[in-house]
Write a structure and sequence with these properties.
alpha+beta, 4 helices, transferase, PTS_EIIA_man-typ, PTS EIIA type-4 domain-containing protein, PTS_EIIA_man-typ_sf
Amino acid sequence: MIIVVDLPGGMPCNVVLERYLTDERITILASLNLPMILELYLNLGQADYQMSQVIKTAICNTYDVKQQLSNQTEDDE
């Protein structure tokens, strides 16, 4: 199962982490946002729109929250 939250460290993310941090079946992705999705959707009909840029931005700004926390914990040790 994948849970998508908007901001890492925000309330929805923290609530999900409290519940699913140790559940290996759950992946938590952060940094997806509605404006980015709406921008993409609303511009799909424009021939000159660079959809690939929005996709690259989304990929670069989205990450697995549990993996990020694990990496931070390893770095702190």
